[in-house]
Design a protein that fits this description.
heterodimer, A: 206 residues, alpha/beta, Rossmann fold, 8 helices, B: 67 residues, mainly alpha, 2 helices
């Protein structure tokens, strides 16, 4: 079976889809756009495929993936259940990268140091990027993970974040939803992030 | 150990990436108009000094000498 085409600038975001994560979700989209990448999420792809197949296709088509495990914890709604989607998708990415090391690189993100050693000791020897649960933490760690000459400063990225965040209500109203992770909302967030990047960063396409 | 990637290759032009998002042109225009307003607000905020830095009875100084 032929390998799927790969987008060298695409970054798969394995993140929790919940309200408490909204700010960091926007930060990832804005930060990646500012650094010249295309963020991708599982809900952002259309089609009636089984979710797991969609996620695998997405991982295979992205050169990079970011796995934010900061909210791998017990869900509040009863019955209290650990959230396993993110570790599952991380496992898929690790396997894909092991088989095709030149096609995929994965990164781990956490909120606090040493949490990962406790939750997944199998990953000993892999240090996560620590965002501390903050927007500027995400942005500065993105700059550390993806080093690019001419990358905007964290301050400039924060300005871009504020601009993008101020559009959330307008985007949600236009889409007729309150779900920030809906496919159409995600696309418009990416558009806004691209527009902010166009206005704030030097042309990285040259 | 944590991986980091040194990006040296140029990225795809923004127009191509935006085209891939497949947002109708009319909606793109609406979003750009919203962005224009947000940028104007941000620029105005940056030009105006914080209230506590302005002495009572004095108007805030403008950023441009032409004003």
């Amino acid at each position: 079976m032929p390998l799927p085409p790969i987008n060298p600038n695409a970054v798969f975001l394995n993140i929790p889809y919940d309200e408490e994560f909204h700010k960091l979700y926007i930060a990832y989209i804005v930060g990646l756009s500012q650094l010249g990448f295309d963020p991708r999420i599982a809900s952002g792809i259309p089609g009636g495929e089984r979710r797991l197949d969609r996620v695998l296709s997405l991982i295979q088509s992205c050169r990079y993936s970011i796995h934010d495990l900061s909210r791998v914890e017990l869900g509040v709604a009863p019955p209290a259940t650990p959230r396993f989607n993110m570790p599952l998708e991380l496992g898929m990415a690790i396997t894909w990268a092991k088989i095709n090391p030149k096609r995929h690189t994965w990164f781990l993100w956490e909120s606090t140091p040493r949490r990962l050693q406790k939750s997944m000791s199998d990953l000993d020897g892999t240090d996560p990027y620590i965002h501390g649960g903050t927007v500027d933490g995400v942005l500065s760690e993105l700059r550390n993970a993806f080093v690019r000459v001419g990358a905007p400063t964290v301050q400039a990225m924060m300005d871009a974040y504020r601009i993008a965040e101020s559009h959330i209500d307008g985007i949600l109203a236009g889409a007729g939803t309150r779900n920030l992770f809906a496919a159409s909302v995600f696309k418009e967030l990416c558009f806004v992030a691209e527009d902010v990047a166009r206005r704030t960063t030097e042309d990285l396409t040259k | 150990m944590r991986p980091s990637v040194h990006i040296t290759t140029p990225i795809e032009p923004r127009e191509i990436r935006i085209k891939r998002l497949r947002i109708p042109k009319a909606r793109q225009k609406e979003l750009v108009a919203m962005m224009d307003q947000a940028w104007a607000r941000l620029a105005a905020e940056k030009e105006t000094p914080p209230i506590d830095s302005v002495q009572p009875g004095k108007k805030p100084e403008r950023a441009s000498a032409a004003d």
